[in-house]
Amino acid sequence: MKGLSVSILLLLTLFGMANQAPARDMAIGLSPYQNADVAEKQIKSLVEFLAESLEPGDRCMLFDAYHVQTLGIFAVPDKAVYRQPKAKVQANRQVVAAMIQFARTAKRPDGDGEPSVIGAIRIPQALRFIGQDYPVMQDSDVILLGSPLYDDPKDQPFSMRPNHIPGDGHLTKARNVTPYGIKGQDSLLAKRRVHIAFLDNWKQDDHHSYFVQRFWTLFVEGQGGQLSSFTHDLPTLFQRVKSNAASPKHDYKVEPTDKLEMILMRPPTVRRQTSIYERPVSTAPLSAEAVRRVSNVEVGITWECGGCDLDLYGQHAPGATPLWFLRTQTKDGQYFKDFRSSPRSANGYETLAYHVPVDLNHLLLAVNFYNGSSPGGVKGEVRISLNGQTYAMPFHVLAQEGNGGVGRQETLTARQANNPAWLVIDPMEVLGVRSSSTVVSQR
User: Which of 306, 371, 380, 391 is nearest to 340 (CA)?
Assistant: First the structure.
């Protein structure tokens, strides 16, 4: 009888353990680059959230998400007496003091060697730190409080300021090639729900925000996690954490490209203007004199192959720095991706805009079939806009497959196509100054 009682007691104990909710394991990353008063309010909200939501046995690791350094661990002792918020805070007074000190030393970036965005955090490094150094056996939450724009002075070519979005090709590379590289890290963020909360002054507009959220969603999902929250509303984020909210449904897909480009989004003031692809096409030819010094020149290309990636190059004079996807801004102009009815991160339509007067006799326009395949080549249209008029002409790249830009330097130096994947377009033909015909690629 005694043995039976012991057995029943053991079964009840095991049953209770099996039904006991697992302890919550959380991580919160903070930015040292913001106004101290804002940081202190943020810390106050965090302490209240932790005291209300963590239960005995739960813990939360707090860290500097820019310098990637641990601030401390807010841990609730596994005793019933610590169910009261005040008791939780008292048990963690040292880490709370460290959080307050961190907030008081926070400051806006104001010098060389510092990021240029307020609330700067380094999302790739912060998530790598969590994934590698704090493995979990169950679903857990990672909260990052700061700007979603990556801006590290040591990684200036990869900065998301101003208005730059990493192309999907970064996601195909290793992290020693690009800070956004996740190749070989398929499960680094497994069982992680990532939440990003930011001040509501970082984005240019909703168009910009859409592509930033899209990229970080694909970045997190590509490592086995999910981006559960992307918001400026801290109470909403806290509620989503408490309810173990999953990632919102989306239709984002990684574009098949290996191109390491930082896509420059058009500023809202420019984007509100009628797109070069939507303007009426002029047919009256221009005189040779009228194209020698033209202001506000804009050039764009479209093409028919949805799975193909074409690149536009512009060099306004021999020896000038060309505009292209790895040189999106020069003193003379800017290179953009234009996303229209179906936004695509990798294969947006190409556009160049010059800020200086251009002699169109010397303007080099080149097109490269970079990626994809298309039997019979790729057909498209080039447009040039100037003085309120827009001119258009079809082109045809004969190569049936992209060549990844091979022959780039040779084409730009010689100002003629180096291989069938390249095409050099004469602006004078587009404008009707010289007789025009469908332009095809040539050797």
Answer: 306
